[in-house]
Write a structure and sequence with these properties.
Blueprint lengths: L1 E4 L5 H18 L12 H13 L3 E6 L2 E9 L21 E9 L8 H17 L3 E6 L4 H9 L3 E3 L14 E6 L12 E2 L21
Parallel strand pairs: 1-8, 4-5
Antiparallel strand pairs: 1-2, 2-3, 3-4, 5-7, 6-7
């Protein structure tokens, strides 16, 4: 398998993986995650398209089949009213945030999601000079919270659902980049990174939204 930076022409593949995850969450898991696109369908698709245009989204390919995706972003996550999702004291240091980590159900159970998170740790350390990766997780998806804790993430006990009333992903998790738990190179090779993925000054906050 190969991990490659996606292009705007890959919108269909990203949406297909997302829709497969939505169907699985609705039928197999006791959660309302993604049951309603956030903040609405048009803006949700626009966010995907914007991520692709800015070379933030990556796809894992098994030959010609897309089997997983992850998005990295250099902009701070905001809610629909442009309020920061993470508390101010957590936005002072360099960190890399991830979002839309999805694995095709046909490839579940081989550690691909863990491999993508470990790859993100490598990118955070090598390309951004960041010491932690962070993700904001759907507030009510308790099983997903347990998954990230199993991946050595620590939950930040700071946000409550009423603080950002319209933002669905207020369970905040972070992990030091040195706490990766698998060797992603055993799962997939990495294609070339875009030229605009470079190092940032240590004082600059590097962040990626999730949901």
């Amino acid at each position: 398998m190969v991990l490659r930076c996606a292009t705007p022409g890959n919108l269909h593949e990203v949406r297909k993986l997302t829709e497969e995850a939505v169907d699985w969450l609705r039928t197999e898991k006791n959660t309302d995650q993604w049951s309603t696109p956030w903040p609405d369908l048009d803006r949700s698709i626009a966010r995907m398209r914007n991520d692709l245009r800015q070379r933030k989204t990556w796809l894992v390919w098994d030959d010609v089949t897309p089997v997983g995706t992850i998005t990295l972003d250099s902009k701070e996550p905001l809610d629909a009213h442009n309020r920061p999702v993470w508390p101010a004291y957590k936005r002072r240091g360099p960190a890399l945030y991830v979002r839309r980590v999805i694995v095709s159900r046909s490839y579940a159970g081989i550690g691909l999601g863990a491999g993508l998170l470990d790859w993100a740790s490598d990118v955070a350390r090598q390309d951004y000079g960041a010491t932690v990766i962070r993700v904001d997780v759907w507030t009510t998806n308790r099983e997903l919270h347990e998954y990230y804790q199993g991946q050595r993430f620590t939950r930040l006990r700071i946000r409550e659902p009423w603080e950002l009333t319209d933002y669905p992903s207020q369970a905040l998790f972070e992990r030091h980049v040195d706490r990766a738990g698998s060797d992603h190179k055993d799962l997939f090779a990495e294609g070339d990174r875009p030229a605009n993925l470079g190092r940032y000054p240590a004082a600059e906050v590097i962040s990626v939204a999730s949901s």
